Amino acid sequence: MHESDEVIERVVTALRRDVVAFAPDFDARVMALVRDEPRAVPVRGIWAWMTRPRTVRVTPIGALALAAGLAGVVALAARNDAPAPTSGVAQAPAGMVIPASSSTQMMEFVFVAPSASSVAIVGDFNDWEEGGSPMRRKNQPGVWTITIPLAPGRYHYTFVVDGTEWVADPLAPRTIEDDFGRPNSVITVGDATT
Amino acid sequence: MTDRTAAATPDSVLVRRVLDGDVEAYAQLVVRYRGRYARFATHMLGSVEDAEEALQDAFVRAYRSLARCEDPERFGSWLFRILVNRCRTAGARRGRRERTIVHDEIALRDAAEDHPEESVAWREEIGRALDRLPTDQREAFLLKHVEDLSYEEISAATGVGVSALKMRVKRACDRLRDQLKEVYSARE
Amino acid sequence: MKRLGPAVLMLAVLAGRSEAQDTRLARLDSKVQARVGALLDSARTLGIPTEPVVDKALEGAAKRAPNERIINVVRSRFNELVAARAALGGGADPEIIAAADALHAGASAQVITALRAQRPNVALTIPLAVLADLIARGVPPDTASTAVLALAKQPSTDAQFAALRDEVERDIAKGVPPAIAPSARTRGLPPGARVPAAATTAGPATGGLESGPRKP
Q1: Burial, C161: exposed, middle or buried (Cβ in 10 Å; 0-12, 13-18, 19+)?
Q2: CATH architecture of structural domain B112-188
Q3: Residue pLDDT, tens place only, A117-132
Q4: CB of C9 within 8 A of CB of A148?
Q5: Is the pLDDT of residue A57 over 50?
Q6: Per mean pLDDT, which range of B11-20, B97-106, B153-162, C35-44 is the poorest?
Q7: Neighbours of C74 (CB within 10 A)
Q8: From residue C187, how far is each of B3, C128, C152, C191 by CA, in Å?
């Protein structure tokens, strides 16, 4: 049977030697399809939004242009010194406010959850109240918002979707997880710098 | 400060990033596994074009259900399972069809001196014999002998029990041997 | 569920909520209340911010954590605030809170002291927050500390600290291991910029610049 084993051996060797070259645009085609996929979970999908070219308009309440169907949370800073975006990527750092004046900063938190019936924000700034502070729907469908005045400090918070689902802000920095099992989101409001 | 060359980012990290919303991180997984799985898909389906379609399909489906990947560290195996399924569907959908001559599309490595039979004709014969195998035997044979998976891994990828797989591999080998024996000895 | 309008929130934030504390603690289990009350007394004596202590307790209650856990977490928070204040040599509440967060993440007290020494007259809230955020993101504490200190040695603005964190975040998202992302961003800074050789506090990190990237 030696000879017949050799046949299989040669077959396997030949097949293993095959180097299959896919078309050079294969990867690009896959990614194009993947990008077109709807966001699987409505509260995820922040990074594509963050790195897509967009304008962050700096106004006290923060009029934010959101592309349709993108999930995202942003806390807009009332920054008077924001440089114009050069490469189209937003300059406002996530989760951090560097105020020009030392007054309380009005922070707009925006959260996109198209299929939610209610979204609330819970955190240090509202004493982790049961139910938190309900957010209201903005003009665009599925976009929730609330504006909260914040004095300098560092605030932990999270979102509650439909009264039951606790969701951290995907865009903001996290805390270390070991307190109560799930990481919070953090926003830091700095002292006024001259 | 120590400067370390960037090690390859583990699959689990990339998966988590994608789930956190970084779609572009998925591209790294595509690059990583396209190379690894192209060969199996091509052997299974008999044409590079069909294989591209099946693998593309698999990547998109894997992305779609990424949240359900239970063990992000084993993303590769999970993706492979999806690919095996796509190949089965593609094969069934097309039924038996003319097998594209593979050697035109596949770059043959320079045959080693001691294997002069690795010629185009020999490779074509192998392709024909492979194509004539029943699908499940071809699948089992390729996974075991060409892709080098263990029976446990094949079982996980296909959902078929180990003893059934062993039987399929044996039958595939028997058939291949029968069909190629003459061609092979004629070459000697 | 009470809806707190912006006006009420603003009042609460600005007034320091000293009157409201008792009412809020009533939400807690009586055992937890007692412990938290005692910690708050100590906090006031020591001159450390009390709000973070209350917030932690309320957070635990909101998340329905067991009493023991709430007490442990609140006590840790208290200790971190005390250590933070000591490391800073006093300071404004936001600074102390940010420093406590940095300690909690795994930075050493020595780094905080070094930062203060580097910038005695400027608020450290943002640099300390950046330090905490970097470590939470997966950068080893030593590496994060070195990067933040290096930036502090220059006349850097808060915006530059925030930009460092953002750029590191983007690098990590692109696939750079957290352990080397900050060094890529702080190249060109004075070679003498190093964390003081004293031991780092025990934290979730493996410690040392030779260690590999932490699992995010």
Answers
A1: buried
A2: Orthogonal Bundle (1.10)
A3: 888 999 998 889 877 7
A4: yes
A5: no
A6: B97-106
A7: 26
A8: 11, 20, 14, 9
Question: Which is higher by pLDDT, B78 or A152?
Answer: B78
Report CA A52 to chain centroid distance, whole Å: 12
Decide if A11 contacts B176 (C-beta within 8 A): yes
Angle in degrees, CA C151, C155, C156, rounded to 5: 50
Closest CA to A82 of A65, A66, A99, A95: A99
Distance from CA of C126 to the nearest CA of B (A): 24
Please report the DSSP string for B10-27 in residue order: PHHHHHHHHHTT-GGGHH
Percent of chain C with pLDDT over 70: 75
Write the ipTM.
0.81
Q: Which residue has the tokens 């997966």?
A: C138
Residues in a beta bridge with A189: A97, A153
Neighbours of B160 (CB within 10 A): 17
Task: List phi, psi (to 5°) of A19.
Answer: -115, 110
**Are C132 and C102 within 8 A, CB to CB?**
yes
Parse chain B into domains and list their residue ranges.
9-94, 112-188
Q: Do A18 and B42 touch (CB under 8 A)?
A: yes
Instruction: Could you please state the CATH topology (level 3) that the domain comprising A42-189 is classified under.
Output: Immunoglobulin-like (2.60.40)
Write out the two tokens for A140.
């665009």
Average pLDDT value for chain C: 77
Q: Which ranges constitute the DSSP H helices of chain C? A: 6-15, 21-25, 30-46, 51-62, 67-88, 93-105, 109-118, 125-137, 141-153, 158-174, 181-185
**Which residues 74-133 of A are in CB contact (within 8 Å) with C?**
81, 93-96, 98, 104, 122, 124-133
**Left, alpha or beta for B149 (phi > 0: left; psi -120 to 50: alpha)?**
beta
The pLDDT of residue B37 is: 92
Sheet of A136-137: strands edge to edge? A73-76, A105-112, A143-150, A136-137
Taking the C-alpha atoms of residue C84 and residue B151, their distance in angstroms, rounded to an integer, is: 57
Query: Which two tokens mark C193?
Result: 């910029």
What is the pairing mode between strands A105-112 and A119-123? unpaired
Instruction: Please report, for chain A, the start and end positions of each structural domain, with discontinuous segments joined by +.
Output: 42-189
Closest CA in chain A for residue C4: A133
Cβ neighbours of A173 in C, within 8 Å: 133, 136-137, 165, 169
Kindly report the pTM of this predicted structure: 0.49
Bridge partner residues of A161 (DSSP): A119, A165
Q: Give backbone dihedrals phi and psi of B172, rounded to 5 degrees, phi first.
A: -60, -45
Q: Which residues lie below 8 Å from residue C9, measured CB to CB, with a gap of 6+?
A: A125, A126, A133, A148, A149
For chain B, what is the radius of gyration of the CA atoms?
19
pLDDT in tens, B84-118: 988 988 876 655 444 444 443 344 444 444 454 55
Q: Are A90 and A171 in contact (CB under 8 A)?
A: no
Q: Distance, in angstroms, between C185 CA and closest chain A CA?
A: 16
The better pLDDT of the pair A98, A94 is held by A98
Domains B9-94 and B112-188 share a fold: no
- May I ask the CATH class of domain B9-94? mainly alpha
CB contact under 8 A, A127 and C98: no
